[in-house]
């Protein structure tokens, strides 16, 4: 296990270009605690260091002890898409029985690129496949909404779920309302479709009735904390939802931000 990680770190160092700004050098940080590995990767998902990372993580001696994985990228170039293709991780034979936390850094106000999950622009079920391979997953933070396969099996270990819509909500709120697969979910964060440069962008947003179904669903009763990013609902609609769950049972925080080029 340690030899594989050392080889990965050495390879990433070898691949670093001394002629570019160190800000854009890929980095792999590793912490070993209680026999589990906690890995933080910062680099471009398009470059060889990320491929080397994936190839190392799916090795059986590493996959079985992976405890957490964090993926981050520098905000390079402008007005584009930074897409994390997780297929190399989730389509290998290995599973991640001890993985408790998986996160891909989400979009921040002022980012020049839209961060998403996908080989191109579509999530294509990769998050559902990751969930199925990670039975102990407690925390999941991702910048793209998963498709319906994400809800196809019960996953009682998931307590914290933070999802941004990316380029498609994929009916995330409706699917969550209709499925009882996360009985121990305590905290939910959801970022609404926010491609505000599109003339018809509200058409890509979640219908209010889906939120109403979620708030009245028995599957939502376990959630105690809801962070709602970039909601397009009116104040009146928000008040309706607020009335469905007393404040003592559910804290709601609404965060709105947007950015555009002029």
Account of the protein in words:
The protein has a domain at 75-255: Leucine-rich repeat, LRR (right-handed beta-alpha superhelix) (Alpha-Beta Horseshoe). It has helices at 2-15, 48-57, 60-63, 87-90, 126-132, 172-178, 208-216, 235-244, and strands spanning 27-33, 36-42, 66-72, 80-84, 101-104, 113-117, 139-142, 160-164, 187-191, 225-229, 251-255. The chain contains eight helices and eleven strands. Helix 1 (2-15) packs antiparallel against helix 2 (48-57) and helix 6 (172-178) packs parallel to helix 7 (208-216). Helix content is 25%, strand content 23%. It is an alpha/beta fold. Helix 6 links the parallel strand 8 and strand 9. A nine-stranded mixed β-sheet has the order 1-2-3-5-7-8-9-10-11, covered by helices on one side. Strands 4-6 form a two-stranded parallel ribbon.
CATH architecture of the domain at 75-255: Alpha-Beta Horseshoe
**pLDDT averaged over residues:** 92
- Gross morphology is globular
End-to-end Cα distance, whole Å, is: 50 Å
User: What is the CATH fold-level name of the domain at 75-255?
Assistant: Leucine-rich repeat, LRR (right-handed beta-alpha superhelix)
Describe, in short, the structure shown:
The protein is α/β, with parallel strands linked by helices and 262 residues long.
Q: Which keywords apply here?
A:
globular; 8 helices; alpha/beta; 11 strands; 25% helix; Leucine-rich repeat, LRR (right-handed beta-alpha superhelix)
């Amino acid at each position: 296990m340690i030899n594989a990680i050392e080889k990965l770190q050495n390879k990433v160092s070898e691949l670093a270009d001394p002629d570019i700004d160190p800000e854009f050098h890929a980095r792999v940080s590793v912490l070993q605690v209680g026999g589990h590995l906690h890995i933080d990767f910062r680099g471009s998902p398009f470059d060889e260091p990320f491929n080397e990372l994936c190839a190392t993580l799916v090795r059986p001696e590493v996959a079985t002890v992976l405890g957490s994985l964090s993926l981050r990228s520098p905000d390079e170039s402008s007005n584009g898409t930074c897409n994390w293709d997780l297929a190399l991780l989730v389509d290998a034979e290995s599973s991640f029985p001890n993985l408790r936390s998986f996160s891909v850094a989400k979009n921040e106000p002022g980012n020049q690129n839209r961060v998403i999950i996908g080989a191109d622009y579509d999530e294509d079920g990769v998050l559902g496949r990751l969930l199925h391979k990670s039975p102990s997953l407690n925390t999941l933070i991702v910048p793209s909404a998963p498709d319906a396969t994400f809800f196809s099996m019960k996953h009682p270990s998931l307590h914290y779920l933070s999802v941004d819509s990316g380029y498609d909500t994929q009916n995330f709120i409706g699917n969550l309302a209709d499925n009882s697969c996360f009985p121990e979910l305590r905290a939910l964060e959801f970022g609404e479709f926010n491609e505000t440069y599109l003339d018809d962008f509200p058409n890509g947003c979640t219908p209010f009735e889906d939120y109403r179904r979620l708030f009245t669903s028995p599957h939502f009763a376990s959630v105690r904390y809801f962070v709602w990013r970039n909601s397009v609902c009116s104040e009146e609609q928000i008040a309706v939802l607020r009335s469905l769950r007393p404040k003592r049972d559910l804290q709601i925080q609404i965060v709105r931000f947007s950015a555009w080029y002029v």
